[in-house]
C-alpha cells in the first residue's frame, strides 16, 4: 500500500529555511529532545518547550519555557513530541489532559518517538477527527546524531505534510525519508533495527569465534568488510575493541545505542510481527539475548557489548 | 596468533604471470573445479586434471586428462584440490591411496575445499612430515565467481608459500587474502559465512515483516541500505523478488549459493565453535532453519529463498 | 505475593451443590462455552446465555436465550465469560456497551478466557470500583475436558470468592485451583502452557531424531517414560503416530489443542515476560516455530503435529 | 530397524547371580567408574581394574590392580569401559596400544561411556572382526545412581549378549534396557537427554517467569505437576530452591548432573541429528545456552542452575 518511491531522500542542504512564521512546540526534553531543540535554536527557531522534569525545561537557553504541555502547544502550528514510549505519547496526546484538543485546526503534530505502527495509526486517526495533521517520524542516529544534527527521520503519513515540515526537520537531521502512509515511518524503523540487532549479534559471534581460534580481529574484519559478511555492524560499528576508533567498543561500550533501546525496538518489531503472523525467529532470539544481558546489568551499555557477553567477560563486577 | 596484516589484499592485475615452468595438477572437477581449470587454461596453463567421474575429466579441452589422482600429481609442483568435503580431501591426500606420498618434495599442495580448520591443520602437519608445503585456501564467490575468474581465496599456512602461488590463484580469482597460520583460511571463511547466513535470515525476516505490513520492498531496501541495517545481503543480494535484477531472488532462487552449502558451512562453524566453547546462538538457530528448509526440499535453491520460506510460500509443490 | 498453599486442590465430589438460588449468566458460546453451558444444565442449572452468533444461542436446549450481553446479566449473580481473547473480554465488560454497569452490586464476575494477567488485573480493578467481585479463572483441558466436565480452573482473585463459586465450577470441571491474587490464575496457566509448548517440541525433536536413526518409537517412548526425559508430552500425549491410542497423533492430528492456541498462549507468556524482563529463550523460539507452522496452514491441527513438521511431511498438500 | 519391544525392562531382583566364573575387567575409574566397581565388589566380584591415574587404581579395595589396560583385560571374559568421551574409548580399544587385540575370542566388551552412535558402531564392527562381542551400554542416573547401584543401562548390540551380561550389570544398576542393534543404546540415551535438557530449560523459564510475576514457586510447581506441564524436571528435580529437598537446587546446585555433561550430550545429539538432517531447533538453542553458562564459569554446577542463570543471579562472584 505504500508504493511510493523514496522521494525526498538525503537532504543535506542546511540552508533550506522553514516558514519564518512557523511556531514550533517541542514536548519531551530527554537525551534526544534536548539536543534536537538546541539545534532548532541554532537555526533561529524559538520553540515552546515542555517536559515533566522542570529542570530539563529551565536548562535550555533560547527557548520559551512552558509549565505544561497544554501551554506549550498554545499558538504553535508545528508540534513535535519525543517521548520514551507509545503509552506516554498516547497519554500526552489523547489522554485525559491530552494536548490534541488544545492544538489549533490544521496544525501539524509530528511524533519522533519509537512507538510501533499501531500507536501511530491510532494517533493519526484521532488527530484527523480533530482536524489536526499527524506524522509518525521516528529517527535513527541516536544521541550522537541528535547532537550533531545528523538524524535520519523516517516519516509516515501524508506526503504533502512531510514536504511541508521537512525544512524544520532538516534543522535537526540530515535526512528525511518519506516511507508511506501513517505508520510507515514506524514500520521502517523497526524493520531496519530488527536487521541491525540480528546482524550485530551474528557479527559478534563470528568475531568471537575467529579471535578465539587465533585470528587477528582487525584482519578478520578487513576480510569480512570486502566479502559477503560485510555490514554496517562490521565496517562502521565494529564490536571488537581495537578494531576501530571512535566507536563504543573503543570506549568500554559507553555511549552509543543502549542494549535497553535495541531490546525495546526488537520487542516492538516482535509485536508487529505477531499482529500479522510473520515469523521472526532470529529477531526473537536476539531479543532474548539482549534481555538476558539487561538481567546481567548491561542494559545501559552500547548494544555492541554483545561481543563481550559472548566472550564471557562482560559480567564480572 | 595470526597477527599479520592483510598484506596481499585485492590483487586484480591479471597480467601477473606465474612461473612459466610451474606444472599444475588439479583434482576435483565439479561445478567449481571445472570452471577454475578452464580459467587456468585461458591463462596459458595446461593443468593435469583428475576427477572420480571420467566424463568430467574428458570434457575439459586444453588440459592433460589423467586416470587417477596419483597420475595427476606425477611431475606437478603445484597441486590444487577442490573437493566436496573434508573427509574426501583427507581420503584423497592421506588415505590408503593418498596422493601425498606421490607428491614431489617441496611441492606445494593447496586445498580450496571448505573443510574447517581441523582438517587443514591435520593435512598441513602430514604434508610437512613428507616435506610437502600445504596451504588451506577456501574460496568465496561461488559458481559465478569461478566462471568469471573473480573468486576470493582466503589462505592459511606459510606466507611465503602464499606469495609464491598467488599468480596461479589470480588466474582463477580476483583476490588472494593471506589470513595467517595453517587453518586461518578456513576459519576466516567460516566466520564470514556465519555472518552471511545470520544476516541473510535477519534481512529476510525484516523484509517479510515490512512487506506484510504494507511497505514497498524496494523503498524499504533503499532506506535500509543507507541506514544501520545495511549489509551485503540487502544491498547486493536482496532476497525479495523484484528489488534487484540479476540476483537469485529475481530468478526463482535458482543458481547462486545453495541452502545445502550455507548449511554445511554453518555446521562447520558450529563444530569449530564447539571445539573452543564459543557460544554461537544465532548461527545455531540459522543452521537449524536452513536444515529445516532442506527437509522441505529447498536444499538446491539459493539460500536467499529463506524469504519465501518465511513468507510461507516456498513449500507448495 | 501469592504465598498461599494449594488449598482447594482436586475436588471431584460432583454431588457438591451450588447455591440453589444462584442465577448464572454465561457469555461466549464457542467450542468451549457451549460444552461448559451444557454441563451446567446437566447439573440442574438454567443459565442465561448470550453469544454474538445468534445460532449459537438458539441451539442450546435448557438455557434461557438472551439477545444481548446486557440482557444475559440481568438478574444474574454469577456471570461467566468465555471469549476468544483479552480485547474482546474488555470490550464485553468495560467497553462502550460493557456489561459491568449492568451487573448487580456484589455479584461475581468470572472470566475463563485466556487473557494474560494485565487484562485480569484491569478488570478486577474496574469491577471493584463498581462493587462487583471479579475472578480470573482460565481453564486447561480443552474441548475434550469441556465436553467431559473435567476442566481444571486456575483461579486468581479473592480466596473467599473462589470458595463460593467453586460448586458451580465443579459442574463444568474436575479441579479448582486457587492460585493467588488477581491475575494469578492467568499467570499460572501461561507458565504451565509455556512448559507444555517447549516440552512438546523437545519431545518431538528427540522422537524424530531417534526414529530417523532407526529406533522403534514405541520402545524409545517406553524408555523415556521411565527416565529423566519423561513428561506429559511423552507419556500421555505422545506426538508420534502409532505410539498411543486416542491422542491426536493417532487421528491425523485432528481435535486436541490447536497450534493456533498454543501459539496464542506462548505469545501472552512472552508479553508477560517482557513486562518484567524475564528471559524466555526457548519459549520465544517455540512461539516462532508454532507461528511458522501456522504460516504453512497447520494452525488448526493439534500442536503435537510439530512432529510431522520436523519430519518434513506436514506441508505437502 | 530396532523393532524390539522393551523386553528386559526394570530388573530389580538383586539376588540374580552372574556366572561365578566370569572374570570382569573394568577400565576407567573416574567419578562413575570407581563407584560402579565398588558395587561389583560388594556383589562378590573381584574385577581387574585400570585407570591412567595410578592413585585411582590403588585406592580401590578388593579389586585386582593392573598397571595397564592390556594387563587388565588379560584373562577377562567381560570387559567394561567407562571413559570420558568417544575419542578416548577409541584410543583405548582400537588405538595403537588398543586392548582389542589382547581380548580373548568370544569375550564381551561393553562400553558404558557416552560416545554417540557412530563410535559405538565403529567399535562393534572392529570387535566383530576380532571375534569379540561388543555392546554399547551408556547409563543414566549419574554419580548418585552409580553410588547407590541404581543406574539404568541402555544397551545396543545383540540381544543374546545383553541377556548374558545383564546379571553383571544389575550389580551396578537397577535397570537394563535392551534398545536394539549396535548404537541403539547410545541413540536412546542422547534422545532422552535431549528432551531432558530442553524440558529443564523450559521449566526454569516458566518458574522464573511465574515467581517474578508474584507466584509462589511451590504452588506453581504443584499445579504444573498435576497438569500438562508436568515432567521429571518439575516433579522430581525441581530447579527452584525451596521447592524440593534433596535435589541440587536445594544444595547450591552442587552435585548432580553438570552443565558440562548435558552440554556434551546435546552436542552429541546435534552431531547425530546433523548426520541424518533431522532439525533439532530447541536442542540447538539449549546447547548454546548451556555452553554460554560454561563460559560464565557454571560448567561444574548441576544443570538445573539454568534457573539461577535466567534469574540473573548465577554469575556474580
Automatic annotation (TrEMBL), chains A, B, C, D:
<dbReference type="InterPro" id="IPR011548">
    <property type="entry name" value="HIBADH"/>
</dbReference>
<feature type="domain" description="6-phosphogluconate dehydrogenase NADP-binding">
    <location>
        <begin position="23"/>
        <end position="180"/>
    </location>
</feature>
<dbReference type="Pfam" id="PF14833">
    <property type="entry name" value="NAD_binding_11"/>
</dbReference>
<dbReference type="GO" id="GO:0008442">
    <property type="term" value="F:3-hydroxyisobutyrate dehydrogenase activity"/>
</dbReference>
<dbReference type="InterPro" id="IPR036291">
    <property type="entry name" value="NAD(P)-bd_dom_sf"/>
</dbReference>
<dbReference type="GO" id="GO:0006574">
    <property type="term" value="P:L-valine catabolic process"/>
</dbReference>
<comment type="pathway">
    <text>Amino-acid degradation; L-valine degradation.</text>
</comment>
<comment type="similarity">
    <text>Belongs to the HIBADH-related family. 3-hydroxyisobutyrate dehydrogenase subfamily.</text>
</comment>
<feature type="domain" description="3-hydroxyisobutyrate dehydrogenase-like NAD-binding">
    <location>
        <begin position="183"/>
        <end position="309"/>
    </location>
</feature>
<dbReference type="Pfam" id="PF03446">
    <property type="entry name" value="NAD_binding_2"/>
</dbReference>
<dbReference type="InterPro" id="IPR029154">
    <property type="entry name" value="HIBADH-like_NADP-bd"/>
</dbReference>
<keyword id="KW-0101">Branched-chain amino acid catabolism</keyword>
<dbReference type="GO" id="GO:0050661">
    <property type="term" value="F:NADP binding"/>
</dbReference>
<dbReference type="InterPro" id="IPR015815">
    <property type="entry name" value="HIBADH-related"/>
</dbReference>
<keyword id="KW-0560">Oxidoreductase</keyword>
<dbReference type="GO" id="GO:0005739">
    <property type="term" value="C:mitochondrion"/>
</dbReference>
<dbReference type="InterPro" id="IPR006115">
    <property type="entry name" value="6PGDH_NADP-bd"/>
</dbReference>
<dbReference type="InterPro" id="IPR008927">
    <property type="entry name" value="6-PGluconate_DH-like_C_sf"/>
</dbReference>
<protein>
    <recommendedName>
        <fullName>3-hydroxyisobutyrate dehydrogenase</fullName>
        <ecNumber>1.1.1.31</ecNumber>
    </recommendedName>
</protein>
<dbReference type="InterPro" id="IPR013328">
    <property type="entry name" value="6PGD_dom2"/>
</dbReference>
<dbReference type="GO" id="GO:0051287">
    <property type="term" value="F:NAD binding"/>
</dbReference>
<dbReference type="InterPro" id="IPR002204">
    <property type="entry name" value="3-OH-isobutyrate_DH-rel_CS"/>
</dbReference>
<keyword id="KW-0520">NAD</keyword>
<feature type="active site">
    <location>
        <position position="189"/>
    </location>
</feature>
Amino acid at each position: 500500500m505504500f508504493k511510493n518511491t523514496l522521494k525526498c531522500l538525503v537532504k543535506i542542504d542546511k540552508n533550506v529555511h522553514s516558514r519564518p512564521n512557523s511556531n514550533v512546540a517541542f514536548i519531551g526534553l530527554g537525551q534526544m529532545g534536548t539536543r534536537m531543540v538546541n539545534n532548532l535554536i541554532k537555526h533561529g527557531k524559538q520553540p515552546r518547550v515542555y517536559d515533566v522534569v522542570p529542570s530539563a525545561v529551565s536548562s535550555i537557553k533560547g527557548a520559551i519555557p512552558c509549565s505544561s504541555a497544554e501551554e506549550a502547544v498554545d499558538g504553535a502550528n508545528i508540534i513535535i513530541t519525543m517521548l520514551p514510549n507509545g503509552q506516554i505519547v498516547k497519554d500526552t496526546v489523547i489522554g485525559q489532559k491530552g494536548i490534541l484538543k488544545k492544538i489549533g485546526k490544521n496544525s501539524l503534530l509530528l511524533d519522533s518517538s519509537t512507538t510501533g505502527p499501531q500507536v501511530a495509526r491510532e494517533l493519526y486517526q484521532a488527530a484527523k477527527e480533530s482536524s489536526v495533521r499527524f506524522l509518525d517520524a521516528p529517527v535513527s542516529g541516536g544521541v550522537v546524531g541528535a547532537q550533531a544534527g545528523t538524524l535520519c527521520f523516517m516519516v509516515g503519513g501524508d506526503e504533502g505534510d512531510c514536504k511541508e515540515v521537512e525544512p524544520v526537520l532538516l534543522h535537526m537531521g540530515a535526512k528525511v525519508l518519506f516511507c508511506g502512509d501513517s505508520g510507515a515511518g514506524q514500520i521502517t524503523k523497526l524493520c531496519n533495527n530488527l536487521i541491525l540487532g540480528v546482524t550485530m549479534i551474528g557479527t559478534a559471534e563470528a568475531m568471537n569465534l575467529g579471535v578465539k581460534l587465533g585470528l587477528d580481529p582487525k584482519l578478520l574484519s578487513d576480510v569480512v568488510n570486502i566479502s559477503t559478511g560485510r555490514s554496517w555492524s562490521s565496517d562502521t560499528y565494529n564490536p571488537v575493541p581495537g578494531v576501530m576508533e571512535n566507536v563504543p567498543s573503543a570506549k568500554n561500550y559507553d555511549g552509543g545505542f543502549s542494549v535497553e533501546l535495541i531490546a525495546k525496538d526488537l520487542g516492538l518489531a516482535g509485536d508487529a510481527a505477531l499482529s500479522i503472523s510473520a515469523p521472526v525467529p532470529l529477531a526473537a532470539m536476539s531479543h532474548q539475548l539482549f534481555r538476558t544481558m539487561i538481567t546481567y546489568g548491561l542494559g545501559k551499555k552500547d548494544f555492541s557489548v554483545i561481543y563481550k557477553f559472548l566472550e564471557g567477560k562482560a559480567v564480572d563486577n
